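Chain A, query sequence.
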Amino acid sequence: MGDITCEELSKLNGDDYLLIDVRDAESFSYGHIPGALNIPSADIPVADLPQGKQLIVYCRSGNTSAEVVTALSERGYNASNLKGGYSGWLKTHIFDLSRDTALKVEEGLRKKFSKKLFSKFAKAIVEYDLVREGDKIAVCISGGKDSMLMAKLFQELKRHNKFPFELVFLVMDPGYSPENREIIERNAKLLNIPITIFQTDIFENVFNIEKSPCYICARMRRGHLYSKAKELGCNKIALGHHYDDVIETILMGMLYGAQMQTMMPRVNSANFKGMQLIRPMYLIREADIKAWRDYYNLRFIQCACRFTNNCSAEYCLTSNTGSKRRKVKELIARLAKEDPEIEQNIFKSAENVNLSTVISYKDKNGVIHRYSDEE
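Chain A, predicted structure.
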């Protein structure tokens, strides 16, 4: 029993130990240490574990796994806690990546991933009129795979230099733990993204809110991003929502909100005059983003929210919004296995609206029009 460092772990013979990730399945699927076995902490008491091997346990930052190690040791297992958890391993992993990773990634966007990533990025920009000459865009980076890829795609677009526009790579720190902030900074440096970081106290303000903290947190984040972007002279903020986010939002609105709506590619801000929100990843599939991430062995933070900072994304998964989105994602995946065109049909449903067959709809001013109005 005791702690083991990431450096010590790297020197061990893989046949002599079993590496156990006690985070939830969602966190594990997003990213984990190679060779790890996922057994969520709640399942550890009934898990069939080998007595003859050293068990090395990790969670997000080392807190929950330390408790698991104590319980395992009391049951007679030779168990050790990975110091710093997955976050600690991430920092080491990023540091160990090749210093020319950025160059490889940039070349990949022009060659290997051009069709599925950059071409779709450029198509969305043209089709939805997202970037214009003279724009100054705040590329908002959360530290996850989507926003980091978006930053690299914008850099590639800038390299083409078809018309002048400016970029600011903006990172808002809403109260990240020191390890999460360091991971974001290390990844940005690795990928040659010159980030501008500004501090807020959003996590502190929403931490004790019981009703809809995720919704309030998201609204506050958006407001701070608009405000900082405007302060920096930007007229647009870019977010990394992708195709899968769009179709999930459509179904969530229908199934849980009793409304037909979608996540728009371009939105004028109601509270910040002259500012727009754009989503240039609108046509990019999440599976292709994951393929890009995994091809270059990149690892990013999943969720840096303080609610989940004690090693699990369980709060996000069991919160109202998180649980609904997860269910919808799983539903779409099941349907797509039966009919590959399901996802595309959901996406196009928001474009192919025939108002003559709609019972009622709201115009942009919120006025409700019913089918009987024209009779």
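The chain is about 45% helix and 15% strand. The first strand starts at residue 3 and ends at 4.
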